[in-house]
Specification:
507 residues, alpha/beta, seven-stranded mixed beta sheet, 17 helices
């Protein structure tokens, strides 16, 4: 809880309690909580006794489970698949357990997705830790003292943590490469300025939509091809950040000892999967080691805690959103709706029953990537024939249009006086030219270009001004209306242009 989230919880009708010193490491003093209307109690035992809903970060200890009581709700990272005994003990106490790590990855639940919030911080912090242990610049430089080549960074796994690491690495100026078993993330990687490492492998990988947005287990053949590719590029990499994890499984081994041995002295490996065994063979959990060939391997498991203020703010917001969904009436009384996909998916125990594992959500985690057929490569002759056919079709259309227009003009000329025809022909030609100008503009460019081409409307103003002094009252009214409406058109066009240009300017 942060003081800001406490105020939001109070708007939902809740009274807030926090253990003394809980926010100190994140920069939130007890006084700041008191100023926000939060009761500060001295011990965790007192907090469990006072609170109907207990929110924490890590899974509860055995002592904390014993403090739970019937009807009490616990919200925390719980990992029910790995903590079955803990889940059964909490259920025996009659408590409701909401596991923040079980929030389904659907669009509506993104505001409660604490795993993504923490992974985002971990990915960012991994690059900062790598820079702290890397002996060179990330960006390339040419100085009076010589040329400094840019660092080469490989990010293995392009999930939330991986994408955060890619964004941070590219913004620091490093040449960034990324790999993921899900081919649909290649476009995301490339949009962030990194290069996606493709495998020359025939087998099609499972789409991320079938696995809740997570990577699926690879076949032995694909894993072998993956390792072969990593061995090929390992000697060129200065920094390797591994983020590959599959929920409920130990981390897959992706960076072997021979790959580490092939890396240059001074290189750095950041293993974000260290808590589940690590993606690197030599990773030691919660430690930093240096190999015999001078490669630094970091296996810290507390990257979010190394940015405590940011992590607390994001996690407190995730918990607050969870409580918002649990309290639709904003009356301080949680309504545990097991028909809600998000609440049901995150609930591990409720009313004396173990509700884990949850049924799959009714909405897919992500839309399945549509299979795109590769367009057939045309030969030079086929391209030329296609262009000639398109030119002939366009010519036929224009000739037909001009012929029909000429016939209509002749028809009108047979019955209309010469003075009328003079003005009518000018009008028709103006319409034709205007149509050709506007129709040739691409749809994606209509808004900015129309803002400029609307200046052509000034011709209308000039014509209206020449007629506004007419002796006919009707002509004067029509000319005045033309000036008024065209003025709005021109003014609005340039206003739109100004606003669109402002989108590309830093405030």
């Amino acid at each position: 809880m942060t003081p800001a989230s406490a105020r939001d919880l109070q708007k939902l009708g809740y009274d807030c309690v926090i253990e003394a010193g809980a926010g100190a490491a994140a920069g939130f003093s007890d006084q700041a909580y008191k100023d926000a209307g939060v009761d500060v109690v001295k011990t965790a035992a007192a907090l469990y006794k006072a609170a109907d809903i207990v929110a924490k970060v890590r899974p509860p200890s055995d002592a904390e489970v014993k403090r739970l009581r019937e009807g009490q709700t616990l919200i925390s990272f719980f990992y029910p698949a790995q903590n079955k005994a803990l889940m059964e003990a909490a259920n025996a106490k009659g408590a409701t357990v909401i596991a923040m790590d079980m929030v389904p990855r659907i669009s509506r639940a993104q505001k409660m997705d604490a795993l993504s919030s923490m992974a985002n911080i971990a990915g960012y912090r991994a690059v900062i830790e790598a820079g702290n242990n890397f002996g060179r610049f990330f960006t390339g430089q040419i100085t009076a003292a010589g040329k400094v080549p840019p660092a080469k960074v490989l990010v293995v796994g392009a999930g939330v943590a991986g994408l955060a690491a890619i964004g941070t690495s590219t913004s620091l100026g490093a040449i960034t490469y990324a790999f993921d078993v899900r081919p649909e993330v290649a476009e995301q990687v490339e949009s962030m300025g990194a290069e996606f490492v493709f495998l020359d492998f025939e087998e099609e990988q499972q789409d991320g939509s079938a696995t809740g947005g997570y990577a699926a287990v690879s076949s032995p053949e694909f894993a072998a091809a993956q390792l072969a590719k990593f061995r090929e590029i390992a000697p060129d990499m200065d920094i390797v950040i591994t983020t590959a994890l599959i929920p409920g499984r130990d981390a897959p081994e992706l960076w072997t000892k021979d790959m580490v041995d092939s890396m240059k002295p001074g290189s750095v490996i950041i293993d974000l999967a260290a808590e589940r065994g690590g993606n690197c063979k030599l990773t030691v959990m919660d430690e930093k080691i240096v190999t015999d060939n001078g490669v630094t391997i970091i296996g810290y498991t507390d990257f979010p805690s190394r940015m405590a203020a940011q992590a607390s703010t994001l996690y407190a917001t995730n918990v607050r959103h969870m409580l918002t969904d649990l309290t639709p009436d904003k009356n301080g009384a949680p309504a545990h709706n097991m028909d809600d996909d998000v609440i049901r998916g995150a609930t591990a125990t409720h009313k004396g029953e173990i509700t884990f594992p949850p049924p799959p959500p009714k909405v897919a985690a992500i839309a399945a990537a549509p299979k795109k057929e590769k367009p057939k490569e045309l030969t030079a002759e086929e391209k030329k024939a296609q262009e000639v056919a398109a030119f002939k079709q366009q010519t036929r259309n224009q000739v037909t249009l001009l012929t029909v227009g000429a016939v209509l003009l002749l028809g009108v000329g047979l019955v209309a006086p010469a003075s009328f025809m003079q003005h009518f022909i000018v009008f028709v030609l103006a319409v034709f030219v205007g149509f050709q100008v506007i129709w040739g503009v691409a749809h994606s460019l209509h808004t900015p270009l129309m803002a400029v081409t609307n200046a052509i409307s000034s011709i209308i103003i000039l014509g209206a001004l020449t007629q506004i002094g007419s002796g006919s009252f009707l002509v004067i009214i029509l000319a005045a209306l033309a000036v008024f409406m065209t003025g709005i058109n021109i003014f609005g066009g340039f206003l739109v242009t100004r606003r669109m240009l402002a989108m590309f300017q830093k405030s």
